[in-house]
Amino acid sequence: MSLSANISEKAALIWAIADKLTGVYKPHEYGEVILPLTVIRRFDCILADTKDAVLEKFETVKNLPMRDVLLRNVSGKAFYNTSKYTFERLLDDPDNIEANFRDYLNGFSENVQDILEKFKFDGQITTMANKGILYIVIKEFTTPKANLHPDIISNLEMGYIFEEIIRRFSESHNEDAGQHYTPREVIQLMVNILFYDDNDVLSGNNVAKTIYDPACGTGGMLSVAEEYLHKLNASTELMAFGQEINDQTFAICKADMLIKGNNADFIKDGNTLSDDQFEGQTFDYILSNPPFGREWKNEKAAVEAEAKRGFAGRFGPGLPAASDGQMLFLLTAISKMKEPQNGGSRIAIIHNGSPLFTGDAGSGPSEIRRYILENDLLEAIIALPNDIFYNTGIATYIWVLSNKKAGTKREGKVQLINANNLYEKRRKALGNKRNDIPENAIEEITKLYGDFTESEISKIFDTTDFGFTKITVERPLKDENGQLVLKKGKPQPDTSLRDTENVPLKEDIQEYFEREVLPFAPDAWIDEKKSKVGYEIPFTRYFYKYEAPRPSAEIMKEIIEIEKELEGALAEVFAE
Protein backbone atom coordinates (compact mmCIF):
# COMPACT_ATOMS: atom_id res chain seq x y z
CA MET A 1 0.00 0.00 0.00
CA SER A 2 1.33 3.47 -0.87
CA LEU A 3 2.19 5.97 1.85
CA SER A 4 -0.72 8.27 0.94
CA ALA A 5 -3.19 5.37 0.82
CA ASN A 6 -2.00 4.08 4.20
CA ILE A 7 -2.34 7.53 5.77
CA SER A 8 -5.78 8.06 4.28
CA GLU A 9 -6.93 4.65 5.54
CA LYS A 10 -5.60 5.23 9.06
CA ALA A 11 -7.15 8.70 9.23
CA ALA A 12 -10.47 7.29 8.02
CA LEU A 13 -10.41 4.62 10.75
CA ILE A 14 -9.75 7.24 13.42
CA TRP A 15 -12.41 9.56 11.98
CA ALA A 16 -14.89 6.64 12.05
CA ILE A 17 -14.76 6.84 15.86
CA ALA A 18 -16.92 9.94 15.37
CA ASP A 19 -19.86 7.55 14.83
CA LYS A 20 -19.95 7.22 18.62
CA LEU A 21 -20.55 10.98 18.86
CA THR A 22 -23.73 10.90 16.79
CA GLY A 23 -26.66 12.47 18.60
CA VAL A 24 -24.50 14.24 21.15
CA TYR A 25 -22.53 16.21 18.56
CA LYS A 26 -23.41 17.48 15.12
CA PRO A 27 -21.14 16.35 12.26
CA HIS A 28 -19.40 19.72 12.01
CA GLU A 29 -18.48 19.42 15.72
CA TYR A 30 -16.81 15.99 15.51
CA GLY A 31 -13.35 17.45 15.06
CA GLU A 32 -13.58 19.24 18.41
CA VAL A 33 -13.35 15.78 20.01
CA ILE A 34 -11.48 13.65 17.47
CA LEU A 35 -8.55 16.06 16.93
CA PRO A 36 -7.50 16.48 20.58
CA LEU A 37 -8.11 12.81 21.40
CA THR A 38 -5.93 11.77 18.46
CA VAL A 39 -3.12 13.97 19.77
CA ILE A 40 -3.55 12.68 23.35
CA ARG A 41 -3.67 9.06 22.17
CA ARG A 42 -0.45 9.63 20.22
CA PHE A 43 1.21 10.93 23.39
CA ASP A 44 -0.18 7.94 25.30
CA CYS A 45 1.27 5.45 22.80
CA ILE A 46 4.66 7.15 22.69
CA LEU A 47 4.99 7.11 26.49
CA ALA A 48 3.73 3.54 26.90
CA ASP A 49 7.17 1.90 26.81
CA THR A 50 8.56 4.03 29.66
CA LYS A 51 5.34 4.56 31.62
CA ASP A 52 6.14 2.38 34.63
CA ALA A 53 9.70 3.69 34.85
CA VAL A 54 8.41 7.28 34.91
CA LEU A 55 5.91 6.45 37.69
CA GLU A 56 8.65 4.82 39.74
CA LYS A 57 11.00 7.78 39.26
CA PHE A 58 8.23 10.26 40.06
CA GLU A 59 7.84 8.82 43.56
CA THR A 60 11.46 9.67 44.35
CA VAL A 61 11.77 13.09 42.64
CA LYS A 62 8.28 14.64 42.88
CA ASN A 63 9.40 17.14 45.53
CA LEU A 64 12.64 18.10 43.81
CA PRO A 65 12.96 21.36 41.81
CA MET A 66 14.67 19.50 38.94
CA ARG A 67 11.98 16.82 38.61
CA ASP A 68 10.99 18.01 35.12
CA VAL A 69 14.45 17.33 33.68
CA LEU A 70 14.79 14.03 35.54
CA LEU A 71 11.39 12.75 34.37
CA ARG A 72 12.08 13.74 30.77
CA ASN A 73 15.31 11.78 30.95
CA VAL A 74 13.40 8.69 32.05
CA SER A 75 10.63 9.05 29.46
CA GLY A 76 13.22 9.61 26.76
CA LYS A 77 11.01 12.36 25.35
CA ALA A 78 10.54 16.10 25.81
CA PHE A 79 7.33 15.35 27.77
CA TYR A 80 5.98 12.81 30.25
CA ASN A 81 2.89 11.78 32.26
CA THR A 82 2.90 11.09 36.01
CA SER A 83 -0.67 9.80 36.30
CA LYS A 84 -1.07 6.09 37.06
CA TYR A 85 -3.56 5.89 34.19
CA THR A 86 -3.14 5.10 30.52
CA PHE A 87 -5.94 4.81 27.96
CA GLU A 88 -6.08 1.06 28.62
CA ARG A 89 -6.04 1.43 32.42
CA LEU A 90 -8.87 3.96 32.28
CA LEU A 91 -11.14 1.20 31.01
CA ASP A 92 -10.80 -0.71 34.32
CA ASP A 93 -13.12 1.72 36.14
CA PRO A 94 -16.09 2.77 33.95
CA ASP A 95 -17.99 4.36 36.83
CA ASN A 96 -15.27 6.95 37.49
CA ILE A 97 -14.18 7.57 33.92
CA GLU A 98 -14.53 11.37 34.03
CA ALA A 99 -12.53 11.89 37.25
CA ASN A 100 -9.90 9.38 36.22
CA PHE A 101 -9.53 10.83 32.73
CA ARG A 102 -9.03 14.30 34.18
CA ASP A 103 -6.43 12.85 36.56
CA TYR A 104 -4.70 11.30 33.55
CA LEU A 105 -4.66 14.58 31.62
CA ASN A 106 -3.44 16.53 34.65
CA GLY A 107 -0.49 14.14 34.83
CA PHE A 108 1.04 15.48 31.62
CA SER A 109 4.02 17.81 31.76
CA GLU A 110 3.49 21.56 31.43
CA ASN A 111 4.37 21.72 27.74
CA VAL A 112 1.49 19.32 27.00
CA GLN A 113 -0.88 21.25 29.28
CA ASP A 114 -0.47 24.25 26.99
CA ILE A 115 -1.54 22.10 24.04
CA LEU A 116 -4.61 20.75 25.84
CA GLU A 117 -5.61 24.28 26.84
CA LYS A 118 -5.46 25.46 23.22
CA PHE A 119 -7.77 22.62 22.19
CA LYS A 120 -10.35 23.88 24.75
CA PHE A 121 -10.97 20.21 25.45
CA ASP A 122 -12.14 20.44 29.07
CA GLY A 123 -15.70 21.34 28.08
CA GLN A 124 -15.86 18.37 25.71
CA ILE A 125 -14.96 16.01 28.57
CA THR A 126 -17.86 17.35 30.60
CA THR A 127 -20.27 17.02 27.67
CA MET A 128 -19.25 13.44 26.85
CA ALA A 129 -19.39 12.42 30.52
CA ASN A 130 -22.85 13.94 31.02
CA LYS A 131 -24.14 12.22 27.89
CA GLY A 132 -22.65 8.88 28.84
CA ILE A 133 -20.27 8.48 25.89
CA LEU A 134 -16.86 9.36 27.40
CA TYR A 135 -16.04 5.75 28.30
CA ILE A 136 -17.25 4.50 24.91
CA VAL A 137 -15.11 7.00 22.98
CA ILE A 138 -11.97 6.32 25.03
CA LYS A 139 -12.52 2.59 24.54
CA GLU A 140 -12.65 3.14 20.76
CA PHE A 141 -9.28 4.85 20.97
CA THR A 142 -7.75 1.72 22.53
CA THR A 143 -8.75 -0.54 19.62
CA PRO A 144 -6.18 -1.61 16.98
CA LYS A 145 -7.48 0.97 14.51
CA ALA A 146 -6.41 3.73 16.90
CA ASN A 147 -3.03 2.24 17.77
CA LEU A 148 -0.71 5.19 17.21
CA HIS A 149 2.49 3.69 18.61
CA PRO A 150 5.58 5.01 16.78
CA ASP A 151 6.52 1.42 15.86
CA ILE A 152 3.36 1.38 13.73
CA ILE A 153 2.94 5.03 12.71
CA SER A 154 6.08 7.10 12.05
CA ASN A 155 6.32 10.76 13.02
CA LEU A 156 6.08 11.76 9.37
CA GLU A 157 2.95 9.64 8.86
CA MET A 158 1.43 11.03 12.05
CA GLY A 159 1.82 14.56 10.74
CA TYR A 160 0.00 13.55 7.56
CA ILE A 161 -2.76 11.87 9.60
CA PHE A 162 -3.29 15.03 11.66
CA GLU A 163 -3.70 17.04 8.48
CA GLU A 164 -6.05 14.51 6.88
CA ILE A 165 -8.29 14.60 9.98
CA ILE A 166 -8.26 18.40 9.87
CA ARG A 167 -9.29 18.25 6.20
CA ARG A 168 -12.23 15.98 7.01
CA PHE A 169 -13.22 18.21 9.91
CA SER A 170 -12.98 21.34 7.75
CA GLU A 171 -15.13 19.82 5.01
CA SER A 172 -17.86 18.86 7.49
CA HIS A 173 -17.60 22.36 8.94
CA ASN A 174 -17.94 24.02 5.52
CA GLU A 175 -14.57 25.67 6.03
CA ASP A 176 -11.79 25.95 3.50
CA ALA A 177 -10.67 22.35 3.30
CA GLY A 178 -6.98 23.20 3.19
CA GLN A 179 -6.60 26.59 4.76
CA HIS A 180 -4.23 25.23 7.40
CA TYR A 181 -1.82 23.28 5.25
CA THR A 182 -0.07 23.05 1.91
CA PRO A 183 0.12 20.04 -0.44
CA ARG A 184 3.27 18.05 0.21
CA GLU A 185 4.50 18.19 -3.39
CA VAL A 186 4.47 22.00 -3.25
CA ILE A 187 6.44 21.98 0.01
CA GLN A 188 8.90 19.51 -1.47
CA LEU A 189 9.51 21.83 -4.42
CA MET A 190 9.99 24.81 -2.12
CA VAL A 191 12.40 22.90 0.09
CA ASN A 192 14.38 21.64 -2.94
CA ILE A 193 14.96 25.24 -3.94
CA LEU A 194 15.48 26.51 -0.42
CA PHE A 195 18.45 24.19 0.18
CA TYR A 196 19.73 24.20 -3.39
CA ASP A 197 23.52 24.49 -3.59
CA ASP A 198 24.02 25.20 0.12
CA ASN A 199 27.16 23.11 0.39
CA ASP A 200 27.81 23.65 4.11
CA VAL A 201 24.34 22.30 4.90
CA LEU A 202 24.47 19.46 2.42
CA SER A 203 27.97 18.20 3.19
CA GLY A 204 29.13 19.71 6.47
CA ASN A 205 29.42 17.83 9.76
CA ASN A 206 27.35 18.79 12.82
CA VAL A 207 25.99 21.94 11.19
CA ALA A 208 23.07 23.66 12.93
CA LYS A 209 20.68 25.81 10.92
CA THR A 210 17.39 27.59 11.67
CA ILE A 211 14.16 27.70 9.69
CA TYR A 212 11.11 29.92 10.29
CA ASP A 213 7.50 29.95 9.14
CA PRO A 214 5.45 33.03 10.11
CA ALA A 215 2.15 31.22 9.39
CA CYS A 216 3.08 27.67 10.30
CA GLY A 217 -0.35 25.99 10.56
CA THR A 218 0.15 22.39 11.67
CA GLY A 219 3.88 22.67 10.95
CA GLY A 220 3.83 20.70 7.71
CA MET A 221 6.36 22.92 5.97
CA LEU A 222 8.79 22.78 8.87
CA SER A 223 8.43 18.99 9.11
CA VAL A 224 9.04 18.37 5.42
CA ALA A 225 12.05 20.68 5.45
CA GLU A 226 13.56 18.82 8.39
CA GLU A 227 12.86 15.41 6.85
CA TYR A 228 14.36 16.46 3.52
CA LEU A 229 17.50 17.89 5.08
CA HIS A 230 18.12 14.79 7.19
CA LYS A 231 17.93 12.66 4.05
CA LEU A 232 20.68 14.78 2.52
CA ASN A 233 22.81 15.09 5.60
CA ALA A 234 21.83 13.31 8.82
CA SER A 235 24.44 15.25 10.81
CA THR A 236 22.81 18.63 10.16
CA GLU A 237 20.40 19.91 12.80
CA LEU A 238 17.52 22.08 11.62
CA MET A 239 15.87 24.06 14.41
CA ALA A 240 12.28 24.93 13.52
CA PHE A 241 10.60 28.18 14.55
CA GLY A 242 7.01 29.12 13.77
CA GLN A 243 4.02 31.22 14.73
CA GLU A 244 0.35 30.33 14.28
CA ILE A 245 -2.84 32.22 15.14
CA ASN A 246 -5.36 29.33 15.04
CA ASP A 247 -5.48 27.56 18.42
CA GLN A 248 -6.20 24.07 17.08
CA THR A 249 -3.53 24.08 14.43
CA PHE A 250 -1.04 25.67 16.84
CA ALA A 251 -1.76 22.85 19.31
CA ILE A 252 -1.16 20.20 16.63
CA CYS A 253 2.03 21.90 15.45
CA LYS A 254 3.42 22.10 18.98
CA ALA A 255 2.36 18.50 19.65
CA ASP A 256 4.08 17.36 16.46
CA MET A 257 7.30 19.12 17.52
CA LEU A 258 7.17 17.49 20.95
CA ILE A 259 6.55 14.08 19.42
CA LYS A 260 9.60 14.42 17.17
CA GLY A 261 11.83 15.56 20.02
CA ASN A 262 12.18 19.11 18.73
CA ASN A 263 12.10 22.16 20.96
CA ALA A 264 8.39 22.95 21.02
CA ASP A 265 9.11 26.24 22.80
CA PHE A 266 10.11 27.61 19.40
CA ILE A 267 6.48 27.32 18.22
CA LYS A 268 4.55 30.40 19.32
CA ASP A 269 0.87 31.24 19.21
CA GLY A 270 -0.53 34.62 18.32
CA ASN A 271 -1.08 36.98 15.41
CA THR A 272 2.18 37.37 13.47
CA LEU A 273 1.13 40.70 11.94
CA SER A 274 0.22 42.48 15.17
CA ASP A 275 2.22 40.48 17.72
CA ASP A 276 5.52 39.26 16.30
CA GLN A 277 6.84 36.63 18.72
CA PHE A 278 10.27 36.63 17.08
CA GLU A 279 11.02 40.34 16.98
CA GLY A 280 14.68 41.00 16.30
CA GLN A 281 15.47 37.36 15.48
CA THR A 282 16.85 36.18 12.14
CA PHE A 283 16.95 32.75 10.51
CA ASP A 284 18.88 30.86 7.86
CA TYR A 285 15.77 29.81 5.95
CA ILE A 286 12.22 31.12 5.81
CA LEU A 287 9.35 29.38 4.07
CA SER A 288 5.62 29.98 4.25
CA ASN A 289 2.23 29.79 2.64
CA PRO A 290 0.53 32.76 4.30
CA PRO A 291 -3.17 33.54 3.85
CA PHE A 292 -3.86 35.69 0.81
CA GLY A 293 -6.86 37.77 -0.08
CA ARG A 294 -7.63 38.35 3.59
CA GLU A 295 -8.01 41.78 5.11
CA TRP A 296 -5.83 43.00 7.96
CA LYS A 297 -8.17 45.64 9.38
CA ASN A 298 -8.10 44.03 12.83
CA GLU A 299 -4.31 44.42 12.90
CA LYS A 300 -4.34 47.86 11.28
CA ALA A 301 -3.45 49.92 14.37
CA ALA A 302 -0.52 47.69 15.36
CA VAL A 303 0.79 47.38 11.79
CA GLU A 304 0.63 51.12 11.11
CA ALA A 305 2.32 51.88 14.43
CA GLU A 306 5.17 49.54 13.47
CA ALA A 307 5.31 51.04 9.97
CA LYS A 308 5.99 54.45 11.53
CA ARG A 309 9.23 53.02 12.89
CA GLY A 310 10.42 52.69 9.30
CA PHE A 311 13.15 50.13 8.74
CA ALA A 312 13.53 49.68 12.50
CA GLY A 313 10.38 47.59 12.13
CA ARG A 314 9.20 45.10 9.52
CA PHE A 315 7.17 47.38 7.30
CA GLY A 316 9.61 50.10 6.26
CA PRO A 317 9.19 49.66 2.47
CA GLY A 318 5.42 50.30 2.55
CA LEU A 319 2.02 48.81 3.32
CA PRO A 320 -0.37 46.93 1.01
CA ALA A 321 -4.08 47.63 0.80
CA ALA A 322 -6.00 46.72 3.96
CA SER A 323 -8.00 44.16 1.95
CA ASP A 324 -5.04 41.79 1.50
CA GLY A 325 -2.29 41.17 4.04
CA GLN A 326 -0.11 38.65 2.20
CA MET A 327 2.63 41.19 1.43
CA LEU A 328 2.89 41.92 5.16
CA PHE A 329 4.00 38.31 5.60
CA LEU A 330 6.47 38.82 2.75
CA LEU A 331 7.94 41.84 4.56
CA THR A 332 8.01 39.85 7.81
CA ALA A 333 10.02 37.14 6.06
CA ILE A 334 12.46 39.70 4.63
CA SER A 335 12.93 41.28 8.07
CA LYS A 336 14.00 37.88 9.43
CA MET A 337 16.89 37.45 6.96
CA LYS A 338 20.39 37.25 8.37
CA GLU A 339 22.86 39.88 7.23
CA PRO A 340 24.98 38.70 4.26
CA GLN A 341 28.14 38.94 6.36
CA ASN A 342 26.52 36.45 8.75
CA GLY A 343 25.76 33.98 6.00
CA GLY A 344 22.58 35.53 4.61
CA SER A 345 19.22 33.81 4.16
CA ARG A 346 16.92 32.37 1.53
CA ILE A 347 13.13 32.63 1.44
CA ALA A 348 10.48 30.58 -0.37
CA ILE A 349 6.97 31.98 0.05
CA ILE A 350 3.69 31.39 -1.78
CA HIS A 351 1.49 34.22 -3.09
CA ASN A 352 -1.36 34.58 -5.51
CA GLY A 353 -1.00 36.86 -8.52
CA SER A 354 -1.85 40.07 -6.67
CA PRO A 355 1.63 40.97 -5.32
CA LEU A 356 3.04 40.79 -8.85
CA PHE A 357 1.30 43.86 -10.16
CA THR A 358 -1.33 45.48 -7.90
CA GLY A 359 -0.85 49.09 -6.95
CA ASP A 360 0.19 52.04 -9.09
CA ALA A 361 3.62 53.66 -9.00
CA GLY A 362 4.21 55.11 -5.54
CA SER A 363 1.61 52.84 -3.87
CA GLY A 364 2.46 50.49 -1.02
CA PRO A 365 2.62 47.27 -3.10
CA SER A 366 4.72 48.97 -5.80
CA GLU A 367 7.09 50.37 -3.19
CA ILE A 368 7.47 46.90 -1.64
CA ARG A 369 8.36 45.47 -5.07
CA ARG A 370 10.71 48.39 -5.61
CA TYR A 371 12.50 47.71 -2.34
CA ILE A 372 12.86 44.00 -3.14
CA LEU A 373 14.15 44.55 -6.69
CA GLU A 374 16.37 47.56 -6.06
CA ASN A 375 18.01 45.66 -3.21
CA ASP A 376 18.43 42.63 -5.50
CA LEU A 377 16.58 40.25 -3.16
CA LEU A 378 14.44 38.44 -5.73
CA GLU A 379 15.97 35.29 -7.22
CA ALA A 380 13.01 33.69 -8.95
CA ILE A 381 9.24 33.46 -9.25
CA ILE A 382 7.70 30.12 -10.17
CA ALA A 383 4.14 29.94 -11.52
CA LEU A 384 2.47 26.79 -10.18
CA PRO A 385 -0.30 24.84 -11.92
CA ASN A 386 -3.87 25.82 -11.09
CA ASP A 387 -6.06 23.59 -8.90
CA ILE A 388 -3.25 22.14 -6.77
CA PHE A 389 -4.39 23.65 -3.46
CA TYR A 390 -7.26 22.36 -1.37
CA ASN A 391 -8.95 25.71 -0.85
CA THR A 392 -8.37 27.63 -4.08
CA GLY A 393 -8.10 26.98 -7.78
CA ILE A 394 -6.52 30.32 -8.68
CA ALA A 395 -3.01 30.99 -9.98
CA THR A 396 -0.31 30.79 -7.32
CA TYR A 397 3.40 31.56 -7.35
CA ILE A 398 6.46 30.70 -5.30
CA TRP A 399 8.66 33.75 -4.67
CA VAL A 400 12.30 32.85 -4.00
CA LEU A 401 14.34 35.56 -2.30
CA SER A 402 17.96 35.69 -1.19
CA ASN A 403 20.36 38.30 0.11
CA LYS A 404 23.46 36.31 -0.87
CA LYS A 405 23.41 36.82 -4.65
CA ALA A 406 26.45 39.09 -4.73
CA GLY A 407 29.21 37.71 -6.94
CA THR A 408 27.04 34.94 -8.37
CA LYS A 409 25.46 34.53 -11.79
CA ARG A 410 22.14 35.62 -10.26
CA GLU A 411 23.38 39.05 -9.22
CA GLY A 412 21.09 41.72 -10.67
CA LYS A 413 18.92 39.06 -12.31
CA VAL A 414 15.46 37.54 -11.79
CA GLN A 415 14.37 34.18 -13.18
CA LEU A 416 10.72 33.54 -14.07
CA ILE A 417 9.68 29.90 -14.43
CA ASN A 418 6.29 29.07 -15.89
CA ALA A 419 5.47 25.63 -14.45
CA ASN A 420 1.76 26.11 -15.07
CA ASN A 421 1.47 23.03 -17.29
CA LEU A 422 3.67 20.69 -15.26
CA TYR A 423 0.96 18.69 -13.51
CA GLU A 424 -1.07 15.50 -13.66
CA LYS A 425 -4.80 15.14 -13.06
CA ARG A 426 -5.98 13.52 -9.83
CA ARG A 427 -8.36 10.61 -10.06
CA LYS A 428 -10.44 12.17 -7.32
CA ALA A 429 -10.54 15.83 -6.34
CA LEU A 430 -9.89 16.89 -2.75
CA GLY A 431 -11.74 20.16 -2.31
CA ASN A 432 -10.37 22.41 -5.05
CA LYS A 433 -7.33 20.19 -5.51
CA ARG A 434 -7.78 18.51 -8.88
CA ASN A 435 -4.14 18.37 -9.93
CA ASP A 436 -0.83 17.14 -8.50
CA ILE A 437 2.75 18.10 -9.33
CA PRO A 438 4.43 14.73 -10.05
CA GLU A 439 7.94 13.89 -8.90
CA ASN A 440 9.43 14.26 -12.38
CA ALA A 441 7.96 17.77 -12.65
CA ILE A 442 9.43 18.72 -9.26
CA GLU A 443 12.82 17.54 -10.53
CA GLU A 444 12.40 19.48 -13.79
CA ILE A 445 11.48 22.72 -12.02
CA THR A 446 14.33 22.32 -9.54
CA LYS A 447 16.77 21.73 -12.40
CA LEU A 448 15.50 24.78 -14.30
CA TYR A 449 16.05 26.87 -11.20
CA GLY A 450 19.47 25.38 -10.54
CA ASP A 451 20.73 25.62 -14.11
CA PHE A 452 19.63 29.27 -14.35
CA THR A 453 19.27 29.09 -18.12
CA GLU A 454 16.52 30.21 -20.46
CA SER A 455 14.09 27.85 -22.12
CA GLU A 456 10.51 27.87 -23.31
CA ILE A 457 9.33 28.01 -19.70
CA SER A 458 12.29 29.78 -18.08
CA LYS A 459 13.18 33.41 -18.74
CA ILE A 460 15.84 35.60 -17.15
CA PHE A 461 15.56 39.36 -16.70
CA ASP A 462 17.50 42.23 -15.22
CA THR A 463 15.91 43.56 -12.04
CA THR A 464 15.49 46.92 -13.81
CA ASP A 465 13.33 45.29 -16.52
CA PHE A 466 10.40 45.42 -14.09
CA GLY A 467 10.78 49.11 -13.26
CA PHE A 468 9.26 52.15 -14.93
CA THR A 469 8.84 55.86 -14.42
CA LYS A 470 5.24 56.97 -14.51
CA ILE A 471 5.25 60.39 -16.16
CA THR A 472 2.36 62.85 -16.26
CA VAL A 473 1.76 64.33 -19.71
CA GLU A 474 0.03 67.73 -19.76
CA ARG A 475 -1.70 69.57 -22.59
CA PRO A 476 -2.36 73.35 -22.57
CA LEU A 477 -5.67 74.82 -21.41
CA LYS A 478 -7.41 77.15 -23.99
CA ASP A 479 -10.48 79.39 -23.71
CA GLU A 480 -13.28 79.66 -26.16
CA ASN A 481 -11.15 81.77 -28.59
CA GLY A 482 -8.44 79.12 -28.76
CA GLN A 483 -6.00 81.28 -26.85
CA LEU A 484 -3.64 79.68 -24.33
CA VAL A 485 -4.53 80.28 -20.69
CA LEU A 486 -1.38 81.60 -19.07
CA LYS A 487 -0.35 82.15 -15.48
CA LYS A 488 2.85 84.10 -14.85
CA GLY A 489 3.60 83.61 -18.51
CA LYS A 490 3.30 79.82 -18.38
CA PRO A 491 0.59 77.78 -20.11
CA GLN A 492 -1.83 76.12 -17.69
CA PRO A 493 -2.67 72.41 -18.02
CA ASP A 494 -6.07 71.20 -19.17
CA THR A 495 -6.88 68.49 -16.60
CA SER A 496 -9.36 66.89 -18.98
CA LEU A 497 -6.49 66.19 -21.41
CA ARG A 498 -4.04 64.99 -18.78
CA ASP A 499 -2.53 61.57 -19.44
CA THR A 500 0.17 59.31 -18.06
CA GLU A 501 2.83 57.09 -19.62
CA ASN A 502 4.92 54.33 -18.08
CA VAL A 503 8.47 54.70 -19.35
CA PRO A 504 10.74 51.65 -18.82
CA LEU A 505 13.66 52.43 -16.52
CA LYS A 506 16.08 51.35 -19.22
CA GLU A 507 14.79 54.03 -21.58
CA ASP A 508 15.65 57.73 -21.60
CA ILE A 509 12.49 59.58 -20.62
CA GLN A 510 13.00 62.49 -23.02
CA GLU A 511 13.72 60.19 -25.95
CA TYR A 512 10.63 58.14 -25.13
CA PHE A 513 8.54 61.32 -24.89
CA GLU A 514 9.76 62.64 -28.22
CA ARG A 515 9.12 59.31 -29.92
CA GLU A 516 5.84 58.21 -28.35
CA VAL A 517 4.03 61.43 -27.41
CA LEU A 518 5.12 64.53 -29.33
CA PRO A 519 4.25 63.16 -32.81
CA PHE A 520 0.60 62.94 -31.62
CA ALA A 521 0.51 65.94 -29.28
CA PRO A 522 3.15 68.54 -30.28
CA ASP A 523 2.05 70.95 -27.54
CA ALA A 524 2.42 68.44 -24.70
CA TRP A 525 4.94 68.58 -21.88
CA ILE A 526 5.98 66.49 -18.87
CA ASP A 527 5.16 67.67 -15.35
CA GLU A 528 8.33 66.33 -13.79
CA LYS A 529 7.14 67.03 -10.24
CA LYS A 530 4.54 64.28 -10.67
CA SER A 531 6.95 61.62 -11.97
CA LYS A 532 7.08 58.43 -9.88
CA VAL A 533 9.10 55.23 -10.13
CA GLY A 534 7.10 52.00 -9.98
CA TYR A 535 7.68 48.27 -10.31
CA GLU A 536 5.46 45.47 -11.54
CA ILE A 537 6.07 41.92 -12.73
CA PRO A 538 3.62 41.13 -15.56
CA PHE A 539 4.39 37.42 -15.40
CA THR A 540 1.78 36.11 -17.85
CA ARG A 541 2.74 38.69 -20.49
CA TYR A 542 6.24 37.24 -20.75
CA PHE A 543 4.90 33.76 -21.49
CA TYR A 544 1.92 34.72 -23.62
CA LYS A 545 1.59 32.75 -26.84
CA TYR A 546 -0.58 34.00 -29.66
CA GLU A 547 -3.06 31.43 -30.94
CA ALA A 548 -4.66 32.20 -34.27
CA PRO A 549 -8.47 32.04 -34.25
CA ARG A 550 -10.06 29.04 -35.92
CA PRO A 551 -11.16 29.56 -39.53
CA SER A 552 -14.73 30.84 -39.80
CA ALA A 553 -15.66 28.02 -42.19
CA GLU A 554 -14.63 25.43 -39.58
CA ILE A 555 -16.68 27.16 -36.89
CA MET A 556 -19.71 27.43 -39.22
CA LYS A 557 -19.51 23.72 -40.04
CA GLU A 558 -19.48 22.88 -36.33
CA ILE A 559 -22.50 25.12 -35.68
CA ILE A 560 -24.48 23.46 -38.49
CA GLU A 561 -23.70 20.00 -37.10
CA ILE A 562 -24.86 21.06 -33.62
CA GLU A 563 -28.07 22.50 -35.06
CA LYS A 564 -28.77 19.20 -36.83
CA GLU A 565 -28.25 17.29 -33.58
CA LEU A 566 -30.60 19.65 -31.75
CA GLU A 567 -33.28 19.34 -34.44
CA GLY A 568 -33.16 15.55 -34.13
CA ALA A 569 -33.39 15.69 -30.35
CA LEU A 570 -36.32 18.10 -30.43
CA ALA A 571 -38.13 15.96 -33.00
CA GLU A 572 -37.86 12.96 -30.67
CA VAL A 573 -39.21 14.99 -27.73
CA PHE A 574 -42.23 16.35 -29.60
CA ALA A 575 -42.92 12.99 -31.28
CA GLU A 576 -43.56 11.54 -27.83
Automatic annotation (TrEMBL):
InterPro entries: D12N6_MeTrfase_N, DNA_Adenine_Mtase, DNA_methylase_A-5, DNA_methylase_N6_adenine_CS, SAM-dependent_MTases_sf. Signal peptide: none annotated. Residues 13-141 form the N6 adenine-specific DNA methyltransferase N-terminal domain. Keywords: Endonuclease, Hydrolase, Methyltransferase, Nuclease, Restriction system, S-adenosyl-L-methionine, Transferase. This is site-specific DNA-methyltransferase (adenine-specific). It comes from Anaerotignum lactatifermentans. Residues 158-455 form the DNA methylase adenine-specific domain. It catalyses: a 2'-deoxyadenosine in DNA + S-adenosyl-L-methionine = an N(6)-methyl-2'-deoxyadenosine in DNA + S-adenosyl-L-homocysteine + H(+).
